[in-house]
Amino acid sequence: MAKSLNKVMLIGNLGKDPELRYTTSGVAVATFSLATNESWKDQDGNAQERTEWHNIVAWRKLAEICAEWLKKGKKVYIEGRIQTRSYDDKNTGAKKYITEIVADNMIMLDSRGGEQASQPQHAGIEEPSGAAGKDDLPF
Question: Is residue 65 part of a domain?
Answer without folding.
Answer: yes
